[in-house]
C-alpha cells in the first residue's frame, strides 16, 4: 500500500512539473527574481526584445520563465511568434480622463484586447478597433511547424544523408540520419527542404503600415 501511494504521488508530481512549465506559456511571463536575496545566474525570455536574456534569481518563488542556461531558454521559447515592436509596448491609458474604447496587443496572452484610452499621450500600441489590431499585430505562421523542430539524428546506427531546416541560419543544411526515430524536420533532399521551409516562409503577406491617428493630428498641428 505504501509503495502504491508513493508511486501515485511520484506520478502526480511528474505530471504537475510538466504542466507547470508549459512552454511556451512560461516564456510569456514577466521576469520575477523572487523575494529572496540570492544571486543565481539564470535566463528568461524577454517579450519586449524577443530574446533570451540573463537575470539574477533570488533563490525562492518567482515563476517558470526561468532557465538554467541560454540554450535551455532558446529551446523552450524559440517558437514564440515574433511581432512588430509597437505591439510589444505595454498597455498605456495615458493621463487624461476620456474613455475611448481602443485595442492593444497583449504580449502575455498574444491576443488583441480592449482597453479605454484616456485621450492623450500613451504609446503606439493602440488601435481603433479589433480588426486593425489583429491585422497589424497578430502573429502569422510564416514557417511550417515541422521546420521548427530541432535537429534529431535518431537512435539507430545507419548513415543516411538528409537535410533539415536550421532556424538560426534560415537555411537547409545537411546532416547524417541514423535511420529511425528523430524529428519531423528531416528531408530526403535539399530541394524538398527548400520548397517546404524556405519558400514557404516567403509566402506570408506584408503587414500593413500602422498609422496612429492621434499622432498624425499632432504632427499636422505642428506643421500648421
UniProtKB/TrEMBL annotation:
Q: What is its main location?
A: secreted
Q: Name one GO cellular component term.
A: extracellular space
Signal peptide residues are 1-20
Give the stretches traversing the membrane: none
Q: Where in the cell is it found?
A: Secreted
Lineage: superkingdom: Eukaryota
Give the matching InterPro entries. Answer: Kunitz_BPTI (IPR002223), Kunitz_BPTI_sf (IPR036880), Prtase_inh_Kunz-CS (IPR020901), TFPI-like (IPR008296), TFPI/VKTCI-like (IPR050098)
Which of UniProt's keywords are assigned here? Blood coagulation, Disulfide bond, Glycoprotein, Hemostasis, Protease inhibitor, Repeat, Secreted, Serine protease inhibitor, Signal
- Example of a GO biological process term: blood coagulation
Q: Which GO terms describe its molecular function?
A: serine-type endopeptidase inhibitor activity
Q: Where is the BPTI/Kunitz inhibitor domain?
A: 27-77, 87-137, 147-197
Instruction: Return the protein name.
Output: Tissue factor pathway inhibitor
